[in-house]
Structures are given as structure tokens and as C-alpha cells.
Amino acid sequence: MSTPEQLRWQESETVRNLLKKQNSLLGDSLEALDHLIYLQKSINLLSSDEICKVMVEKLPFILSVKHFSFFLFDKNHRRLQLMSHNHPELNEGLSIYQNDSPIMKEAMTTGRYIFEQDFASSRYFRGRKNPLFKCEFFVSIPLMIENEIIGVLNLNDNDKGFYNVGDLDFALNVSEFVALSISNALLFETVEKISITDGLTGLDNHQQMQTLLKNEVIRSQRYSSPLSIIMMDIDHFKNVNDTYGHQKGDDVLLDFATTMKKFCRSNDVAARYGGEEFILVLPETKVDGAFNIAERVREEMASQTFKYKGKEFNVTVSCGIAQFDPKLTRDPADLIKIADQALYKAKHEGRNRTVIGSP
Fold it and tell me: Which residues are catalytic?
């Protein structure tokens, strides 16, 4: 698994190779070399969001263009997601199907750049303005890593009104480094996400929940702000697995995770505690507020019907609640213990209910 240091070293090696290649292509063009070094220092990051911001700030200047757009390719859904651009006519978060852009589709399909000096006379022109291409020339460059397409970089419009071969050569070199930086950032973010999330439900995992809960306990102690947690368990979940199979059991867990997210606020933490047991960490929430949230989750789950081979079944959830009290609870472990005891009481009293715990 690549570490941040290995990723940075890989980027530096690529830059050195690009500099050698650039030197052979452009001779003594020190200005172009300076631009590439300038970009390398700015974009050598492990955050795709930060890289996209740097692209807006620096790419137009470095590549001598007025407008650019960078689309990330989602190969599973065959969609292009707008990640970075400086077009005033493009909407943030734009997502289009690959087939909806003949230019970008061809660039990705062939793995080769498309360079047209006059967009209006090209076969891609559909008789109307295209917000991606503001004036006569356009360039569409597929961004590739080891023959795999990760996205497309589009360039157009400058003070000269045209793009020459030297401009294009430099843009192709820069695109190689942009592709590597984006790929490394996405890889790093994926690895980071996997390390803190549950593989099945996408919720925070047990370790991440413990870290976040510890931080919330410290904040609660410092500012005397309320903090509550809800421990939740799917009733008779073993029977679901035994009767309908583990695949259907996973479907139930996924549905439960979705229900939890539905009632989560922006600062709440939803996590899989283990097996069929889940936890909600609720900052700025007193016990009565936590009770209301627990009841909404419990009632939502009880109202849902699951199907298996023509048969229908329902599941219920039991909940235990605890509120942090700095006088009676010292740390996250104490808080979890109180909620867990309340959950046990809910199970013992007949399940499908919410019980408020006390130290």
C-alpha cells in the first residue's frame, strides 16, 4: 500500500522525467521549464480538492489559455464529473454521460488528444455554442495512468486565438503530471476512507467512532455542552441470517445504515459498532433529544418490509441511550457502558423499544 512519502517520491520522479523530456522538446525554453517546476511545487498534494483549486489558480497561466475544464471519469457509471474549471457558464457539480460529449468520448476511447483549430468547422460542432469551448480552437486531452483513463482535460481560448505545436507539447507534458497527481490523491483518499469506514455499510467503523467520541467527550467537558449516544441493535438478527441467508442479512444491515443516515444531522456520527450493533454519537444533544431520534429510527425500521423469495418479513430495533455527565462519567468507555446496559434492558423487557440509561 502506498504511503504519502512514496506517492510524493513517485511524483518527483515523474517531474524529473518530464523535465528531461521537456528539455529535449523545447530546447532552452527556460520559461516552460520554470512553469512546470512551479506547477509541481503547487500541485504536489494528497487532496483532490486542493489540487482542483490549484488548477483553477495556475493552469490558465501555465498553459497560456483563458479557459479549461477537468472532468473525472467514473468508469462504473460511464459518467464524467466536473471537478475543476474556470468557465463562467458551467454549473458546479455538473455530471454528464460519456456519450453526451462526442469530443471527450473520442479522446477517452482512442486514448489520444483531440486538437482542432476551429471548433465551428469540426465534426463535433452541433450548430450551437458549447460552454466548454469558448472560441475557435479547442484541445481535449485524456488523462491516463497505466493505460487507464481517469479523466479529461479541455483547453481553449487565449489572447492569440490559436494554439501551436509547442503549446500543445507542453500541455501534454503537464497533463501527464496532473493525471499522476490526481490519481495519487484519489488513491490516498480511498485508502484513508477504507481505514476509517465499515466496508459493508459505509458508516464509520469502530475505531473511527472511538476517536470521534473521545474528541466529543473532551469538547463536552471543556465547554459544558450536552452529549448523548444511542446504542442500537437489530433484534433477532441471527434468525434473519439463518432463515433468509447472509446476503439478505447484509441487505437489512445496509437498509438500517441508510435509515440512520436519514436522521443524522451534519455533526452527528453514525457508526457500526460491530455485527448487528450500531451507535449514534450526538453532540449538542440532551437525553430527550436523543430519545426522539432513537424512536424515529426504531419506528422507521419497524415500518419497512423486506422480501425474500416471495415471502415478506419485518425487523425491529432496540435502543439504549446515555448522556454524558462529567460528574458521573469519566471517559467514553463509561458512556458506552451506560448505553450498552440500557440496550440490554430494552432487550430484556421485550425488544423493539428505547430505554434511557443512568450511571
Answer: 276
